[in-house]
Amino acid sequence: MKIFKLPDLGEGLQEAEIIEWHVKAGDAIEADRPLLSVETAKAIVDIPSPQPGRIEKLFGRPGDIVHLGAPLVAFEGAGDDSDAGTVVGKVEVGARVVQEAPSALGAGAGGAGAVKAMPAVRALARKLDVDLAMVTPSGADGVITAADVQRVAKVLAEVGPAEVLRGVRRAMAQNMARAQSEVAAATVIDDADIHAWPARTDVTIRLIRALVAGCRVEPGLNAWYEGHTGRRHVVGKIDLGIAVDLPEGLFVPVLRDVAHRDAADLRGGLERMRADIRARTIPPEEMRGNTITLSNFGMIAGKYAAPVVVPPTVAILGAGRIHDAVVPADGVPAVHRILPLSLTFDHRVVTGGEAARFLAAVIADLQMAQ
Amino acid sequence: MADLNLVEAVNRALAYALASDPAVVLLGEDIGVNGGVFRATVDLQSRFGAGRVIDTPLAETAIAGAAIGMAAMGLRPVAEIQFTGFIYPTLDHVLNHASRLRHRTRGRLTCPLVIRSPCGGGIHAPEHHSESPEALFAHIPGLRVVMPSSPARAYGLLLAAIRDPDPVIFLEPTRLYRLFRQPVEDDGEALPLDSCFTVRDGTDVTLVSWGAALQEAQAAADLLANEGVMAEVIDVATLKPLDMDTILASVAKTGRCVIVHEAPRTAGLGAEIAATIAERGLYTLLAPVQRVTGYDVVVPLFRLENQYLPSVARIVGAVRKTLEAS
Amino acid sequence: MSTVAQFHVDYTQYLDPDGEPVQPLPAFAQDASALLPLYRAMVLTRAFDSKAVALQRTGKLGTFASSVGQEAIGVGIASAMRAEDALFPSYRDHAAQLLRGVTMTESLLYWGGDERGSDFQAARHDFPNCVPIGTQVCHAAGAAYAFMLRREPRVAVTIFGDGGTSKGDFYEAMNIAGVWQAPLVLVVNDNQWAISVPRARQTAAQTLAQKAIAAGIEGRQVDGNDVVAVHQVLAEALDKARRGGGPTLVEALSYRLGDHTTADDATRYRDADAVNRAWECEPLVRLRKYLMRMNVWDKAQDAELGKACYAQVEAAVADYLAIAPPDTSAMFDHLYASLPRAMREQLDMALAFAPAAGNHHG
After folding, report:
1. Min distance A117 CA to chain C CA atoms (Å)
2. Which regions in chain C score pLDDT beneath 70?
3. Residues C94 and C68: beta-carbon distance below 8 Å
4. CB distance from C265 to chain A under 8 Å?
5. What is the DSSP string of C297-318?
6. pLDDT at A321 over 90
7. Is the pLDDT of residue B267 over 90?
8. Strand pairing report for A185-193 and A292-295
9. Exposed/middle/buried for B244, CB within 10 Å: 0-12, 13-18, 19+?
10. Is C256 a catalytic residue?
């Protein structure tokens, strides 16, 4: 209910006598319609309605004296804005309805563990060009002290400035770090007996063929796995990443669809790849999208390894140095040529059995003469 | 020059003020005939008369309110609230009126009053007699809050408070009332308000404290000196407005700060000092600021009181933490 | 069993609601024309009061506490006081303030949100409006003591409402002033309402005047709508105080004809008929009737007075509206006698964020 009170009549007039009402309770009226006539000391005056509405109640009868501010008429209606809802000041009424997203109880998301050092120590580190991440703290609670920073600064002065990794080396640092943190790596090791190979067998081509054989038996090792979403994509086509070692660093160009290419085609592709890499003309697309990787590190040195599986691939086959070894053959020792094999797989998506069966197929293919 | 304890120094200062300024009046419960329950006002009524040393009814609200009326009409009232446990009824008048009278009348009316009250624990007292309310008052704009830590500073700061044209809350550490004596010249010399006192020079850590806790701070400094750690000790004295320049200069020198106060930790004045150091002195810090305070508990009755009050061991421990960090 | 103490409370009235004397008028009122200044003061107060309400309604003034219907109390008090006395008002005592020399413009500045409104150019020792209920009574007691100590023939007068008599400050102040026998006059504007709480629910005491008995001082009741009675009772109390006779509590019965403040709507808790009946006892009408009957006043003069007061009010409003808001630095002025160094940084920040010159918002 909104109450309309006797307004300022002007000229210092304080009161008036009700002469006649022009409306009654229940009437629906428009703004400015005369509500009543009142007589002041000066004249008879009509008081207009300040608003449209339906009259709920009248205050006072003809003959009554009403004073400034006294109630005259009550209008029906929702939104009783005659109630200020306070006795002092003005409490703003807003119509906005706020939808608030659920808020976290306690701390919000994000915020990794930071290096702990006082501002003075940080300033010192900046001045001495020491990366605080490289400093082992000796203070209580893992706090890096000024002495720690001084120590590292001295060491760095002796060993010379650090080199900032760029390009391929930088990419390798980032990829391997990510691989290490995401992948559940497991490795299975074995040897292939290749004494049956003819002379001048192309080792890389045989490895590629053997790897294809492994994929046929266990296609799950030729796949992409996205850890955050938990989705695996077993790929039909085998795009083989081949680790290539150059002075600039590790390159892994991709030989496409190796399962459907013959030896000559593969050899040609390999040679073109190597030439392009050396000339640094290999396009970026050729460095992406491998479904499985081969690392023939044995060409340099080393028998076995646990090479790193770089996501989203799930397997990498490492071939070690071919060497002569004494093996039992028909019950008697014999010297055979041995090709060591290391298969590292992402145990989040590949089982030990799948890996072992893959490796068995690889070995079986390699052990064939042709 | 006589050796006075703190309560005697207060008495001398009040006497000097009453003698030298006819506008000064004292009012409070039991301050006249009885000389005050702690004898802070002993002999003053017989010397200056019951009109100027007034035994009031038991009415803290009226004591504070009437003091405001007196002050606005040109007297310089020094009201005693018998214990800070009973000071809370005065908060309305202090906060709503005394601290605002000058501001809200644009200087037309002013309020040169002093409310003095014994505060702090360590006197084996019953409940409600061991309060440390300085932070409550320090939060009020337009007010001054002063807490002396020695007889000489009590004398000089009380005179300054009485002479100040604005309201001052003067909190007297009860534990120090008779704890030790000091030569005090009864010469009417005031000490400056709004200023810290560096009571001990040092280079390795700054101890900031006020009131009775200065005793433990000094004792801790002695112990640390034996280990070769030289602590600088600052008596804040005027808690509002804070003299942060002195504290910051000291922290710039030592790089380490331990704040000691008896009042509870949360929103105690140690927090204000630590925050200001973080704002203005962070780059000079070698270790985070430490606070050694009363716990956020109701002050325990005296059987546990010693475990509540900041101890020398806790202070030394805090200093050691600052040394380890750097 | 024997009676060890009894009390009585006297009630004083001279003019009934119709302006008819119920007893011989006191000496000062014998000549009816002596009452004209009182009448004019009441009319001016009401004109100011109505205008202030209208200003609030049009957004030109903040919350305002109307004194409509209670003009006789303030005019009766202030007309009996001397200039050198000191007034400790509530926030509804515009009548007393205006008669003591506080200007309408100063009052509008206060309610318009400007501290300069309390820097009275006249009445230099009067306290400003007091919002924390009843606290002014303690201040008045202290002031009275100061006058007494310095042997000044000055009296502290304080006004507060029926609600204020429930407050501890009121009793403590009355009690301490009683012990001191200080030159204090306490006046209760008993207008029957403390916001929405009616007098019957404020205390079980039959009268508010008798609360004086508990403090050992005299308590009297007076018809607060009869300016002759109020003036006379106050004059007696002031004289008694000045002669060292101690404090007096005067309960002036009136009615709060308006809302508690402009933000209050009394129709929520009050009966319109009761208010209308109260209007029939209001102070201006009864004095007007008496003055006209005594042939010292007529309708034409009344109309003239209305216009003149209206013009006076309009002029004060124009002055008020022309005063620019204070500078940002005013927040820091008069905080202490001189701004402590420690606060300089805060003042600088406020100045740095101050609105551009000429860009004021109220």
Report:
1. 29
2. 357-362
3. no
4. yes
5. --HHHHHHHHHHHHHHHHHHHH
6. yes
7. yes
8. unpaired
9. buried
10. yes
**Residue A105 vs residue A219, higher pLDDT:** A219
Give the integer Cα–Cα distance in Å for C109 and A357: 94
From the candidates A118, A149, A150, which should be mutated to test the interface with B, based on the most B CB atoms within 10 A?
Answer: A118
Q: Mean pLDDT over residues A192-210, rounded?
A: 95
Domains in chain B: ranges and CATH: 2-184 (3.40.50.970), 197-325 (3.40.50.920)
Q: Which residues contact A344 (CB under 8 A, 6 or more apart)?
A: A185, A186, A187, A306, A307, A308, A309, A315, A316, A318
The residues pairing with A17 across neighbouring beta strands, listed in sequence order, are A39, A65
Using a CB-CB cut-off of 8 Å, the residues of chain B touching A139 are 324-326
**pLDDT per position as a tens digit, B79-105:** 999 999 999 999 999 999 999 999 999
- Assess B1–C contact: CB distance below 8 Å, yes or no: no
Contact C172 B62 (CB under 8 A): yes
pLDDT tens across C139-176, in order? 999 999 999 999 999 999 999 999 999 999 999 999 99
Q: Which residues contact A38 (CB under 8 A, 6 or more apart)?
A: A6, A16, A17, A18, A19, A44, A45, A47, A66
**Å from B66 to nearest chain C CA?**
4
pLDDT in tens, C180-216: 999 999 999 999 999 999 999 999 999 999 999 999 9
Q: Could you say which residues from 29 to 58 on chain C have a Cβ atom under 8 Å away from some Cβ of chain A?
A: 46-47, 50, 53-54
Instruction: Report the residue of chain C nearest A83, measured CA to CA.
Output: C265
Residue of C nearest to B76 (CA): C146
Assess B186–C contact: CB distance below 8 Å, yes or no: no
Contact of C301 with chain A, judged by CB distance below 8 Å, is answered with: no
**Amino acid letter for position C201:** R
Chain C residues inside the 8 Å CB shell of B51: 149
> CA torsion, points A268, A269, A271, A274, in degrees to nearest 10?
170
Q: What does the DSSP 8-state code read for residue B266?
A: T
Q: Do A41 and C303 touch (CB under 8 A)?
A: yes
Spans of all domains in chain C: 10-322, 327-362
- Spatial separation of the C-alpha atoms in residues B98 and B163, rounded to whole Å: 16
Asked: is C10-322 a CATH 3.40.630.30 domain? The reply is no
Q: What is the pLDDT of residue A12?
A: 63
Distances (CA, A) of C218 to A15, C170, C223: 39, 15, 17
A81 touches chain C (CB under 8 A): no
Closest CA to A240 of A362, A363, A367: A362
- Structural domains in chain A, sorted by start: 2-75 (2.40.50.100), 116-159 (4.10.320.10), 168-366 (3.30.559.10)
Instruction: Say if CB C250 and CB C222 are below 8 A apart.
Output: yes
Q: Does A13 touch chain C (CB under 8 A)?
A: yes
Q: Which of B32, B74, B79, B36 is nearest to B59 (CA)?
A: B79
Tell me what pLDDT residue A110 has: 62
How far is C74 from chain A, CA to nearest CA, in Å? 19
